[in-house]
Design goal:
Structural class: alpha/beta
Shape: elongated
Number of helices: 13
Strand content: 5-15%
Distance between the termini: 62 Å
């Protein structure tokens, strides 16, 4: 409906559609309801940006690939966001997955929807699909792993450079074995709606390794190779390797002003294993999750226009406690018209608030406790009730606040 208006606003020139948009339109859409029960090999693929609080410049991206059937997760660091690097990472991931990759479901990122990634996938006989724009639930499997695996391991700091990418590669190499062989997770079995209520049922928690062994469509050779790999793994050693890589990443962030977190050396697996129990109880602080400790900067109070007239204002309030800020500004304007006008209304309000708060604190501190003895009174005569009270109201003491005001010491 707005095409004619947009053309007129652009001076009669049509906006040229990018080349990647044509490729994106050729890729079919797959929603979260279209997966059904695919065999192992169909993956959701997404990228996690490690830019910290800014997306300016070049920084490391993590390519996350999650198998739909088993939950097998592979993470690979990319030095920059580029289609050719995505192809190299997927080639590397093809050798890490225990089975052949048959399908790849991307989002609408231009790093995926280009003339490099899509033709390569089709040349490798990989079925290419994409999610709907601005519908993250279409990639629920990989989005969950982005938080549960990548962010928990690496955090939200900024990482850049080839050397940092190598450290992250070592971290992911140990984490993939720990997550896929030893970390169980839930998988949705069914979901149904009853009115406004959605009822979900889950399979028993299992690791991707256990799901792969129990899947009927995987050949026995793949399962035998997985069992052999499982027998050679030591989870304690994997955790120690992960912590060492995290400490090295933390030191790279530490150059920006973060404090060093002491860690146990992985050379002694027994000491490291003993420290895991206490770390879980004391909320372990990982090296990649540190927060900068900023020194508190003391601020010097600047002089105020009201400082020379503070005693006069206190005397006015002692005589007339109900005096407003506008009235005080008007009186000050008569004393010094060049200094005071309606613009000083806000600072007089802040002064009044602080003075009355100070008086209230003094009244509470000096309040005699022995005099606060409420008698039994019911609420029959309160609000809309017309019956008389069954007990006489207590006589509450009154306290002078210091500015000519009296405060009734009763709960109301």
């Amino acid at each position: 409906m707005l095409i004619d208006v947009k053309i007129a606003a652009a001076g009669g020139r049509r906006r040229r559609v990018g080349f990647y948009s044509a490729i994106r339109r050729e890729v079919p859409i797959r929603t979260f309801n279209d997966w059904a029960n695919p065999p192992p090999g169909f993956c959701e693929i997404d990228m996690v940006a490690h830019g910290g609080t800014s997306v300016a410049g070049s920084f490391i991206q993590t390519l996350t690939m999650v198998d739909i059937a088993t939950g097998w997760t592979e993470c690979l660091p990319l030095v920059t966001r580029d289609g050719s690097l995505v192809v190299e990472a997927m080639t590397r991931a093809q050798g890490l997955f225990p089975w052949v990759i048959c399908g790849a479901d991307f989002d609408n990122d231009s790093a995926f929807m280009n003339d490099v990634v899509v033709p390569w996938c089709r040349a490798q006989k990989i079925e290419v699909t994409r999610s709907r724009a601005y519908k993250k639930n279409d990639q629920a499997f990989v989005e969950q792993k982005n938080g549960a695996v990548v962010r928990r391991l690496v955090g939200y700091g900024r990482f850049d450079g080839v050397e940092t990418a190598r450290v992250m590669a070592r971290l992911y190499a140990a984490a993939r074995l720990l997550v896929n062989f030893f970390q169980p997770s839930f998988k949705l079995k069914e979901k149904r709606r009853e009115g406004a209520k959605i009822i979900k049922r889950y399979h028993p928690p299992a690791t991707p390794y256990e799901r792969a062994l129990g899947h009927p469509k995987l050949p026995s050779a793949v399962k035998r190779r997985l069992r052999q790999t499982y027998r050679t793994l030591d989870p304690i050693q994997l955790l120690a390797t992960i912590r060492t890589a995290q400490e090295e990443l933390g030191e790279r962030i530490g150059k920006r002003g973060l404090a060093k977190v002491p860690t146990v050396s992985p050379a002694d697996p027994l000491s490291f294993a003993r420290s895991l129990g206490t770390a879980a109880k004391t909320a372990e602080v990982r090296a990649t999750h540190r927060r900068p400790k900023r020194r508190y900067k003391k601020r010097i109070r600047m002089p105020s226009k009201l400082d020379p007239h503070l005693a006069i204002i206190e005397n006015w309030l002692a005589v007339e406690p109900q005096l407003t800020a506008l009235a005080i500004v008007g009186r000050l304007a008569t004393i010094d018209p060049s200094m005071f006008s309606d613009k000083q209304h806000s600072i007089v309000q802040r002064l009044l608030r602080s003075l009355r708060r100070k008086v209230a604190e003094t009244a509470i501190v000096s309040m005699p406790v022995d005099e606060i003895r409420p008698e039994a009174v019911d609420g029959a005569a309160c609000d809309e009730h017309s019956a008389p009270p069954t007990a006489s109201p207590p006589s509450w003491p009154r306290l002078e606040t210091g500015l000519g005001q009296f405060v009734d010491l009763h709960p109301g």
